[in-house]
Structure formats: structure tokens, C-alpha cells
């Protein structure tokens, strides 16, 4: 009996101890961490809504193999990407457009506003040229790019300069396998396309010019190949304009920049001198007309004068006076238009903006991309992140299974 009495308390003690252990596990079970990791049991990472850094470091250390595997795989992928990516070269040019004539009423206020990046001339309606702020829109416009793709460039694949448009068209030529498939397996569709294209050509012959910009599929493809390559930045405070291009060939990259700079200058000059140029063309046309009339009147007057020398007659005097008056009028108009023509030419020269090339486009054989070290480091950190995430997910799942 005494032994039974002694055994009962021991069993109660054991049951109470088991309950305390189970309660302790339930109260200290974390949202992730704890449980069994890769190296056995580990202490919980979260206790009372606080992170145990020692337990977190121990858990990560226990799962170092997983982290090493993840880092190794990511670094390998990064190396493959870095060494297989095509090389790219960059070129740039910096130019300073000529300063606009400021209105006298604005005075020094326009200068201070320009330093703050504000164009008072444009706000007051005094802007007669394309503002530098909209140069990026000009460069990215379809007329600009359409003219650029028809400029000739030096491609490494061709001995002679060719336009970007012709380069893209030549690049879309079908291979021998595609041609065989076109006239064998795909012959019904080829016949259908030929019939439809013939109808389109007939309709094209009867089509009219609607006065809008119409680009072909090849032109759109050529524009798309260069549109994202050209980067232009404008500093509103200093007025400096930078044009940069990154492409696959060093010489071609520099030529892209130079052609873009030349074409941008042409657009700005044409816009600024449009009015005075039209005036010059009008005066030139009138000058040519009056020059012909002047020469005709002069020839008629001197011819009549030579034929009727030493002859006196009222009729002769009247005709002589008429030809003399016509010659004088033609001479006066001709000389006046000659002066206006010179003034118009001077006005064109005065209105033509001048661009100062501070840093011209130059060929650089130093690769700008891919940046192999940066790529490998990025993949390295990405691998560490993935490895640590996998370790914590494993530990969290182990805790959930232990709790269940």
C-alpha cells in the first residue's frame, strides 16, 4: 500500500511535467524559424513578437549548404549571361545652341529666369526658334527618324556605306529553307498572298496622295531599330544639349550621333529661318523676272538709239523717249530689287542659329556593355537572397509540421 501511495505522486508529477512542456511549445511556437533545420533542432527565431538574432544566424548557418547551392547556380547563370550578351559601344556629343535675342523690356529678368530654367521669351510670345526643351520631341518624331534612316552609315557587314533602311530590308531577306517551304508546304498560302498583293498593287496605282505621312512596314521597322538607341538630354539651366547612342558597332555608334546632331541642326535652322527664307525666295524670284525685263528694255533702247543716230523727227523722238522711260523704270526696279535681295540674304545669315559643338562625337572602342562585374555581383546577391529565403521556408515548414 505504501508503495502504491509513493507511485501515484510520481505519475502525477510526470503528467504535469508533460503538460508544462506541451504548453511551453505551444506558447513559444514562431511564425517561422525553430523546429528542426538542416542540422537538427534549432531554437525559435521569434519569441514574444521579437526576433532572436542569434537563433536567426544559427538557422542561416545550419542551412549554409542550401545558400551555397543557390549562390553557385545564380553566379553560373550570371556568368553565362555576362559572357554571351552582345557587346555594345557608346558615343555622345554635347552642343550649345546660340542664345536667343532677349526682349529689351525683360532686361536682366530674362537672364535670371534662364538661370532658373524658365524661358520668359517663350512665355511672352517672343520665341522665334525651337526651344531646346522640345529637342527630345523633335528627335523622336517620325519625320526626323524617317529622314535619319535614309542617311548612309558604315556597317561592318558591308564594304560601302548603306542606309539603315536598306540594311533592314536586306536583313529581312528570306533564307533558302524559308523559300523552299514557301513554294512547297506553304504554297496555297503563297498563292493566296500573291493574288491579294496583286489586287493591292492595282489599288495602289489608283490611289491618291492624301497629304499625310505614310510609312511602309520596312520604314517602321527601321525606325523602331534606332528610336530607342538615341538618348537626348537638355540642361535647362546651362542650355547644353547632349545626344548619346549605344549600339553594337563603335564606328556606327559615332555615326549615329553625328548624323543626329547634323539633322537636328538642320531642323532648327530651317524652322528659325523659315520666314526670312521665304522672303528671300520671293525677292529672288522677282529679281530674276525684273532682271530679264531690265535687260530686254536696255537692249531695245540702245538698239533703237543706234539705228536712229543723227536722225531728227518727232516720231523718232517720241519712241526714243518711250524706250528711255521704260529702260529707266526697269533699271530703277532692278536696282531696288538687287538691294532688297542683298538685304534678304543678310537677314537669312543673321537669323541662322549657330551651334557650338563642345564635345564632338568620337569613335570609342571601349565596351560600355555588358558590365560583367556588376552583372555577376547582382546575381551573387540574388543567389544569397534566394538561399536565405529557401532556408527560412524550410524551417517554417518544419515548425508547422512539428506543431501539427
From TrEMBL:
Transmembrane segments: 66-84, 374-393
Topology of the protein relative to the lipid bilayer: Multi-pass membrane protein
Composition bias type Basic and acidic residues, residue spans: 10-23
Lineage: superkingdom: Bacteria
Subcellular location: Cell membrane
Domain Tyrosine-protein kinase G-rich: 322-395
GO (cellular component) term, any one: plasma membrane
First-listed, main subcellular location of the protein, grouped into a coarse class: membrane
Coiled-coil regions, chain positions: 273-300
Protein name: LPS O-antigen chain length determinant protein, WzzB/FepE family
Organism: Saccharicrinis carchari
Amino acid at each position: 500500500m505504501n508503495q502504491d501511495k509513493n507511485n501515484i505522486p510520481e505519475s502525477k508529477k510526470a503528467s504535469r511535467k508533460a503538460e508544462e512542456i506541451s504548453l511551453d511549445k505551444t506558447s513559444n511556437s514562431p511564425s517561422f524559424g525553430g523546429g528542426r533545420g538542416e542540422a537538427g533542432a534549432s531554437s525559435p527565431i521569434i519569441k514574444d513578437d521579437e526576433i532572436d538574432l542569434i537563433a536567426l544566424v544559427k538557422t542561416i548557418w545550419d542551412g549554409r549548404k542550401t545558400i551555397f547551392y543557390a549562390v553557385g547556380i545564380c553566379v553560373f547563370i550570371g556568368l553565362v549571361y555576362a559572357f554571351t550578351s552582345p557587346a555594345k559601344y557608346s558615343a555622345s556629343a554635347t552642343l550649345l545652341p546660340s542664345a536667343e535675342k532677349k526682349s529689351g523690356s525683360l532686361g536682366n529678368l530674362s537672364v535670371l529666369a534662364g538661370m532658373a530654367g524658365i524661358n520668359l521669351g517663350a512665355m511672352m510670345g517672343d520665341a522665334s526658334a525651337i526651344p531646346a526643351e522640345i529637342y527630345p520631341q523633335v528627335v523622336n518624331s517620325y519625320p526626323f527618324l524617317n529622314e535619319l534612316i535614309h542617311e548612309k552609315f558604315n556597317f561592318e557587314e558591308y564594304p560601302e556605306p548603306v542606309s539603315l533602311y536598306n540594311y533592314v530590308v536586306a536583313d529581312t531577306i528570306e533564307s533558302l529553307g524559308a523559300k523552299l517551304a514557301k513554294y512547297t508546304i506553304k504554297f496555297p498560302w503563297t498563292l493566296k498572298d500573291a493574288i491579294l498583293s496583286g489586287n493591292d498593287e492595282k489599288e495602289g496605282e489608283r490611289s491618291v496622295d492624301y497629304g499625310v505621312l505614310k510609312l511602309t512596314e520596312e520604314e517602321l521597322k527601321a525606325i523602331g531599330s534606332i528610336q530607342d538607341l538615341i538618348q537626348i538630354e537638355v540642361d535647362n539651366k546651362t542650355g547644353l544639349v547632349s545626344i548619346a547612342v549605344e549600339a553594337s558597332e563603335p564606328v556606327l555608334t559615332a555615326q549615329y550621333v553625328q548624323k543626329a546632331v547634323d539633322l537636328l541642326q538642320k531642323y532648327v535652322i530651317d524652322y528659325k529661318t523659315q520666314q526670312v527664307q521665304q522672303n528671300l525666295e520671293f525677292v529672288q524670284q522677282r529679281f530674276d523676272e525684273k532682271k530679264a525685263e531690265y535687260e530686254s528694255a536696255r537692249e531695245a533702247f540702245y538698239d533703237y538709239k543706234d539705228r536712229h543716230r543723227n536722225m531728227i523727227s518727232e516720231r523718232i523722238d517720241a519712241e526714243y523717249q518711250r524706250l528711255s522711260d521704260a529702260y529707266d523704270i526697269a533699271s530703277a526696279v532692278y536696282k531696288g530689287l538687287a538691294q532688297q535681295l542683298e538685304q534678304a540674304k543678310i537677314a537669312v545669315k543673321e537669323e541662322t542659329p549657330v551651334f557650338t559643338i563642345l564635345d564632338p562625337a568620337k569613335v570609342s572602342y571601349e565596351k560600355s556593355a555588358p558590365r560583367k562585374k556588376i552583372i555577376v555581383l547582382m546575381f551573387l546577391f540574388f543567389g544569397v537572397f534566394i538561399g536565405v529565403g529557401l532556408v527560412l521556408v524550410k524551417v517554417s515548414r518544419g515548425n508547422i509540421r512539428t506543431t501539427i
